[in-house]
Amino acid sequence: MAKKRLHIKTYGCQMNVYDSARMADILAPLGYETTEAPDDADLVILNTCHIREKAAEKVYSEVGRLRLLKEEKARSGGRMLVAVGGCVAQAQGEEMMRRAPSIDLVFGPQTYHDLPDLLGRATRDLMMTGRSRVVSVDLSTDIKFDKLPEEAAPQGVSAFLTIQEGCDKFCSFCVVPYTRGAEYSRPMADVLAEAARMVRLGTVDITLLGQNVNAYHGDNGHGGTAGLGELMRRLADIDGLERIRYTTSHPRDVDDDLIAAHRDVPQIMPFLHLPVQSGSDRILTAMNRRHTAARYRDIVARLRDARPDLALSSDFIVGYPGETDADFQATMDLVRDVRYSMAYSFKYSPRPGTPAADLDDQVPESVKSERLAILQAELLRQQEEFNAACVGRILPVLLERDGRHPGQLVGRSPYMQAVSVDAGSAQGDLRGTIHNVEIGAVLSNSLRGRLIGPATLVAAQ
Ligand code: 5AD
Ligand code: SF4
Q1: Across the chain, what does the average pLDDT equal?
Q2: Which of 20, 166, 297, 322 has the CA that lies 20 to 30 A from 34?
Q3: pLDDT tens readout for residues 29-54
Q4: Rounded distance between C-alpha atoms, residue 265 and residue 269, angstroms
Q5: Which architecture, in CATH terms, is 144-389?
Q6: Average pLDDT over residues 187-202
Q7: Separation of 174 CA from ligand 1 center, angstroms?
Q8: Atom 13, ligand 1: which residue's CA is nearest?
Q9: What is the C-alpha separation between 353 and 7, in angstroms, rounded?
């Protein structure tokens, strides 16, 4: 079979990273090999994100750049297909083709298992008419996973595994329920089998993914369903799987069993991304978040009871329509009370088709910018404080890849901090293993430490 080159550019969340890897797996049997640059690619896929306006606009700029490459290739008798997948594709469908006619194929997050077929149609259309306008944006989630091939290539020491997709929460600012569709959980047996295969191929650290991952309720094979806590207990039985994480979770779906799993299962890393969005009950209600600030604080307290070394991360939106200074202060109060090791924060961005986009009391851009700067300064201060407190501690670090300097390895602490060490001539032997590292210094984006020795798992202290 003729070899073809595939370039995938991934935007947005980890779910898209996982989807991109699956797309490469699906296309491998057709002779596609992935390439780092789009220049010499036969097929370019943009796997897009629609969560905020900026993310969507980036896609059109990239399509513009690709059009030039495409034309250059056509002049020399070659062909480059441009396909746009992911959430912008889902939200805009046909509209994308109208706005950017150089796109050959638009496909949504729930139809990429059909890529070979869709590409066949696009190629046929191109040959017959000189133009392809294939659009595939069906949202019926439950078929995709059954049709995906098993992973073709090792996924790396740290890898993602999608266990749940879609969302039924309908937060008033969010496009996800419209682009990813209704909530769907994969059967537990499928997840366990996929995880075992990944571990066999060398993965030791798995991050379970879902838009609403702790809403997981997969078929347990006995006529009932299993929650995320139970799933992780079963995953922990896989020999060689050293680290388990999950993201993104919703406070509403944190149940007692999940909290207990943090206490009982040493493989679950003591780091949790638990978005709160706002600290004001008035805004939380308007956002349709279905939890209060007090309930969030209580969940955090119970999680920390179960796993005292738990570090937390979160997402925040400032400037949601109607947000007053007092509402914003409530967010700042919550941040100061909870204390985060890192966090993401955004200015509210109206998304067409979501209820909040039509509200009258939009907050002026200048107020949003001011609040975001205040919030980010506090979050950065907390992050620096957390990192500084790690100096002198011994942390188990999964040494993932070579660093910039000879003999250097870079890895992740349990808290997702990047940690670099000098492994000298042992670099090759230690790559992919978990070692204890004494943290010596905080650099701008990472920590530096000294290798102590192989690590063993430590349960909740
Ligand atoms: N505007 C700003 N931020 C948003 N997010 C989701 N939708 C919007 C929006 N319309 C943020 C939320 C979410 C994260 C993935 O992106 O904080 O948790
Ligand atoms: Fe969006 Fe809310 Fe669903 Fe998260 S829980 S994906 S913010 S609708």
Answers
A1: 94
A2: 166
A3: 999 999 999 998 999 999 999 998 88
A4: 9
A5: Alpha-Beta Horseshoe (3.80)
A6: 96
A7: 6
A8: 315
A9: 31
CATH 2.40.50.140 corresponds to the domain 394-454: yes
Q: Would you say 86 and 16 are in contact if contact means Cβ atoms under 8 Å apart?
A: yes
What's the gap in Å between 378 CA and the centre of ligand 2? 25
Q: Kindly give the distance from the C-alpha atom of residue 167 to the centroid of ligand 2, in angstroms, as a whole number.
A: 6
Nearest protein CA to atom 17 of ligand 1, as residue: 315
Query: Residue ranges of the domains in the chain?
Result: 4-136, 144-389, 394-454
Q: What is the average per-residue pLDDT within 416-442?
A: 95
Q: Which of 198, 177, 195 is nearest to 186 (CA)?
A: 195
Asked whether the predicted pLDDT for residue 460 surpasses 50, the reply is no
Which atom of ligand 1 is closest in space to residue 316's alpha carbon?
A: 17
CA 247 / ligand 2 centre spacing (Å): 12
> Has domain 4-136 been given CATH number 3.40.50.2300?
no
Average pLDDT over residues 364-371: 98
d(CA 211, ligand 1 centre) in Å: 12
In the predicted model, is pLDDT for residue 461 greater than 60? Answer: no
Longest alpha-carbon distance in the chain: 67
Residue 433 phi/psi, 5° resolution?
A: -110, 165
Are the beta carbons of 406 and 422 closer than 8 angstroms? no
Choose which residue among 165, 172, 176 to substitute to test ligand 2 binding: the one with the highest number of ligand atoms within 8 A of its C-beta. Answer: 176
Q: From the CB of 48, is ligand 1 less than 6 Å away?
A: no
